[in-house]
Amino acid sequence: MSHSEAAPAVPLRRAQRIARIEVSGILRIGARAAQLKREGRDVIVLGAGEPDFDTPTNVKAAAVRAIEAGETKYTQLDGTLALKSAIAAKFQRENGLEFGLDQITAGAGAKQVIHNALMATLDDGDEVIVVTPYWTSYADMIAIAGGVAVQVPGREENNFLLDPADLEAAITPRTHWLMLNSPSNPSGAAYDEARLRAIADVLLRHPHVWLLSDDIYEHLIYDGFAFKTMAQVEPRLADRTLTVNGLSKAYAMTGWRLGYGAGPRELIAAIAVVQSQSTSNPCSVTQAAAIEALNGPQDVLAERRESFRRRRDLVVDALNAIPGIRCRRPEGAFYTYANCAGVLGKTTPGGRRLETDTDFCAWLLDEHDVAVVPGTIFGLAPYFRISYASSEEQLRTAMQRIAAAVATLA
Ligand code: PLP
Fold this sequence. Notes:
Largest sheet: 7 strands, mixed
Bound molecules: pyridoxal-5'-phosphate
Low-confidence stretches: none
Distance between the termini: 68 Å
CATH architecture of the largest domain: 3-Layer(aba) Sandwich
Shape: globular
Radius of gyration: 22 Å
Number of strands: 12
CATH superfamily of the largest domain: Type I PLP-dependent aspartate aminotransferase-like (Major domain)
Order of helices and strands: HHEHHEHEHEHEHEHEEHHHEHEEEH
């Protein structure tokens, strides 16, 4: 066919798998905030899921050394033996869990590990139980893998945690996984040993249900709360539990992309199949940095934890002082999840009626220069999430703006 006879281009047809998935609502709010900033507005963005700290100096130095030593080639598919050894030592030291190196996988972020696990195990229509409010990516990752996210409510009066009776009621013959995230994004709520024990008792009655324990916020935990993970609480579940963790949040390494998982050998091998035909190994230099983060001095964790705790208290106290807003004090992570039912149904001075948490958050951004994320995005309304990984000064100003904004509602 000559150039002039080329048939007209056919419009892109998206695969069914992703047809109903949009770019994350959080990213959309971030883009709108960035747009307002470009227009000269002094917007405070409390939407991001990343620490505002820098990667520790010793970790950066290890990466530089790795580059200079030529550690710049392909590595073992799911992590070098040195990295897997550091991960195994972490599990042993911090969680009392013993894993062989063939029970450990490392990928480009905890996100990749979760995605791989779902791709490796879900057939079309398989069900995955998620607890609302949940990290939005779970639902989309489940859908991409062909699964169905079954939402079970984590009620505010129940501390946003999974009630074992609700779990029991949600399990069907098609349930493949339960996904638990503690401390939680977006609620900050964490599961104590007793609650995990009660959930374990349900799972022990349903041997076809696997558990994905997302522990990425493990180190961001306050007031002496004792972090526990399921494989530790109930060893009889260990042969169907994938324990996921990573460096992004604890070590402020979001851009480096390193997460890991540990579980039964056959699952780790299946995950390797998915990773082998997508990204192959996580970045070699990042792996060297991760070894230093895990094996090196850990003092930075405690320092940053204390700073996050102060900010949490600042935000929670300020929110609870605003009429119409109520916020529980979360045990961990760097998020608050506040109830805004008391401001809904009210009208702004400009005549906007705020019907939903989405309306409330859009108004705060449009007219009061604070970007926060509506609970609707996380499957439980009417709430809004604040990420308090910002300076105390910024947080104070943002809280003043929200309080002043709410005071104008009628
Ligand atoms: N799990 C939860 C609950 C998260 O909030 C995040 C990041 O926002 C991740 C996993 C993924 O982290 P990463 O892929 O950076 O390791």
